[in-house]
Amino acid sequence: MSRRTGIQLGARRKAEPQTTPKPEDKQPDVMPPPPSGEAPVPEHRERKASFLTRPKKGVNTNDSEQQDPPTQQPVEKVQQRKGFLSRRSETQSQTNELVSTPPHEKSGDEAKNEQKQSSSQTSESTEKETHKKRLSFLGRKSFSKRNSTENTGHSSSEHSATSSLASETTAEEVNRSVNAQIEEENKRLQNENEELKKKCDAQDSLLKTKMKSEMEAKKKVEILENEKKDLIDKMANENDGMSKLNEELTQIKNEKESINNELIQTKQEKESINNELTQLKTDNDQKENELNQVRHEKDEVIEKFNTSKEENEKIMNELSQLKQEKEEKENELKEQVKKMEEEKSKLITELSNGSDGISKLNEELTQTKQEKEEINNELNSIKEEKKRIEEEKNQIINENKEIKEEKEKIEEEKKELLKEIEKEKEGNNQLQNEINTIQTRMKEIEEKNQEIICDNNKEIAKFKEEQENLQKEL
């Protein structure tokens, strides 16, 4: 806003050229022609009344010379200046209404701008009041001049002298009162400026704590503010650009809303990323627990496999022992059969020798038959045991095959889990990289916010200097 006040003062000075009368450009005091039906005023009375229009020492008469319609400035210029001031106040009110935002959406720069606008508006209001007072005083002065010139048309020279003395005294008193009012207003303005300085310092300390927004939004707002200032500069010289300024202000608001929406979206994305990270951590924990369970099951299967191997070895040892026993029994039976045949041959020889041994042979044959049946029964039992052992062996082989298949499945599942864990690790690394980029961006934003705070402090210092210059000019 400091730039705006300087621009407005420059436009005012352009609109109000201070034309102090030079000794070369001074023209003789020429009074307006008298109204119809009145006698003309003599020249010596006009010369005596001309001191009313001359500037006093120690009084700034630039405004009086510019605003006195019968002396130098015409009425049309005064009306144009009033119209320009009214239009400028209307444009300022419109821009203030358009730029005004609710308190919960205002940033630090906007609060500073509002403070500067309020200070500039107070200074402008005080200047307008002093200007109105001067205009009223000058109007009364010109009215007293005309009355004095009309009344002195038919009066004597003594009456004109007394009236000139009275007008000099009244002019001095009025100048004193005006100077006193100006001093009081200057003091009041100084007090207001000190209060504004205090408020600005307090609000600067508050703004330093609240400046935490992103730099991209700040840059866009600064660009838009510069465009707005350029438009205000153009509005000081042109009144047709109000529609463009309003459109650009609406664009500024829309862009500001979009920036706020982008900020909200970035915050939501950050929250979603954090939620995904927590979910991934929980998933990793679950998968680690599953891996531990699979390892435990694998250990159990390996133990079972080892136990089954031991049992198989025991069974094979038992089979080998049974085979050896069977072979031994077969050998024994063969030997017994051989013995029986030998005994049979002996008996036959004995029978041939005598009939008494027939009975003995028959008995021995029956005994041999019984023994043979017992041996056959034992062989059948051995065969059945052998079949049973072979069936158990086949069952054990099938169980071993199933165990191997389960082991292969577990290894495949393990490989798949390892692949998923690697993928999740890659995703976690990507998320960590994104988080690091976000943190670096946040650091850059904080640095740029500090730069903005320094720029704002510089603008405040410039604003204070301009206020001091205004006080000096007043």
From TrEMBL:
<feature type="compositionally biased region" description="Basic and acidic residues">
    <location>
        <begin position="103"/>
        <end position="115"/>
    </location>
</feature>
<feature type="compositionally biased region" description="Basic and acidic residues">
    <location>
        <begin position="282"/>
        <end position="298"/>
    </location>
</feature>
<feature type="region of interest" description="Disordered">
    <location>
        <begin position="277"/>
        <end position="298"/>
    </location>
</feature>
<feature type="compositionally biased region" description="Basic and acidic residues">
    <location>
        <begin position="323"/>
        <end position="341"/>
    </location>
</feature>
<feature type="region of interest" description="Disordered">
    <location>
        <begin position="1"/>
        <end position="201"/>
    </location>
</feature>
<feature type="compositionally biased region" description="Polar residues">
    <location>
        <begin position="59"/>
        <end position="74"/>
    </location>
</feature>
<protein>
    <submittedName>
        <fullName>Viral Atype inclusion protein repeat-containing protein</fullName>
    </submittedName>
</protein>
<feature type="region of interest" description="Disordered">
    <location>
        <begin position="322"/>
        <end position="341"/>
    </location>
</feature>
<feature type="compositionally biased region" description="Basic and acidic residues">
    <location>
        <begin position="184"/>
        <end position="201"/>
    </location>
</feature>
<feature type="compositionally biased region" description="Low complexity">
    <location>
        <begin position="154"/>
        <end position="169"/>
    </location>
</feature>
